[in-house]
Amino acid sequence: MLQIYLFLSCFSLNPYTDLLGSICLPLLRSPQLRQWLVRRNCSTFTVESAARSQPAVAVPNAATNRIVGRWLLGCSGLVVGAIVLGGVTRLTESGLSMVDWHLVKEMKPPQSEEEWQAEFSKYQQFPEFKILNHKMTLPEFKFIFYMEWGHRMWGRLVGLAYILPTIYFWRKGYFSRSMKGKVLGLCGFVFFQGLLGWYMVKSGLEEKPESYDVPRVSQYRLTAHLGSALLLYVASLWTGLTMLLPAQNLAETKRLIQLRRFAKGTGGLVFLTALSGAFVAGLDAGLVYNSFPKMADRWIPDDLLAFSPAINNFFENPTTVQFDHRILGISSVAAVTGLYLFSRRMRIPNRAKVAISLLAAMAYTQVALGICTLLLYVPTPLAATHQSGSVALLSIAIWVLAELRKMPK
């Protein structure tokens, strides 16, 4: 094989030299082989010129883009895990069990009975124990502590999954100039997300002497925390998909432009519906009016605008928050249905058709999950599945947009 390669390289018979060169060039550069060629009266110039005849591979290239794309999809998967775990932590009311925030120190949970008692004593000084969990035992505390600890450790895993490969790929030259800005933005967003998480938890640890309500984190901060996580996920998923899925060569017709705009609007509505779910979770709004399609015996409940000023109802009134989430959910399903029917009348690539069909199927599944969660008074497994379904629906919407995007110029 080596002799064939040397022969072909003299006549520049590509692409055969490209294939053989990838196998033989590491051998050609070894000192032992050079000595053997000298003993066989072979010119070292032939060896060196053969090695130099292979053009240098530019970086980044298609292969490195695939590696970076897969990495970003993996990171987006880890973000989904953090969102789902955060939802379960909220549903089990575990988020206020860790009353301190230390980047490294808290990575090791309590080991001895004395350490657990010390951690439990700290928790007992805060409103959630005094008002809600004053009868809690140490084993019960361990459960909620491990839930929150697992969520925080997963967050650190997400940070490492973004930052360490970024350093490696940067040094290897895998990033284009525009890509460098994107990955720096993603890494900065991960850091911001961690700070926002602690800022959210802190709101639930504050003493409020005038209030005897169940202690909970601010619904505004909870929504900001979820929203930033969804933005990080969407940005990572979109960038990864556009690097792995080649853009379809679609004729820029008027109907295609309308379909693309329809898909963007639908994706935005799905995102807004998922975000409104954070207000529902933050106010425990799923525990009021557990009936469908009416709220109790009315289409529009009497206390829909009970707060003053009226604008506060949309963010602080559990009835209004649940009503808004219902309307947004139904609107999302209607938009997805319209997108599906509109796309059936067009000639688009099969992969795009599959994506839109899956989007429609997931939308109806998500509505069914939401209704069941409401009627059954928000059981934790079903509520967690409903929250995960919102991320799945958003993911498919991003896939649809990636399939319908314009060809790069």
Q: Would you kindly provide a brief summary of this structure?
A:
The chain is mainly α and 409 residues long. It folds into 3 domains: 2-52, no CATH class; 62-244, no CATH class; 248-409, no CATH class. The chain has helices at 2-11, 16-28, 31-39, 44-52, 62-91, 113-123, 127-132, 138-172, 177-205, 219-244, 254-282, 313-316, 318-344, 350-375, 380-404.
Can you put this structure into words, describing what you see?
The protein has about 400 residues and is mainly α. It has helices spanning about 1-10, 15-30, 30-40, 45-50, 60-90, 115-125, 125-130, 140-170, 175-205, 220-245, 255-280, 315, 320-345, 350-375, 380-405. The chain has three domains: about 1-50, no CATH class; about 60-245, no CATH class; about 250-409, no CATH class. It is built from 15 helices and no strands. Residues about 1-30 and about 40-50 have low confidence and may be disordered. It catalyses: Fe(II)-heme o + 2 A + H2O = Fe(II)-heme a + 2 AH2. This is Cytochrome c oxidase assembly homolog 15 (yeast). One of its GO terms (molecular function) is oxidoreductase activity, acting on NAD(P)H, heme protein as acceptor.
Write the layout of secondary structure elements.
Layout: H1 2-11, H2 16-28, H3 31-39, H4 44-52, H5 62-91, H6 113-123, H7 127-132, H8 138-172, H9 177-205, H10 219-244, H11 254-282, H12 313-316, H13 318-344, H14 350-375, H15 380-404
Helix pairs in contact: 1-2, 5-8, 5-10, 5-15, 8-9, 9-10, 10-11, 10-15, 11-13, 11-15, 13-14, 14-15
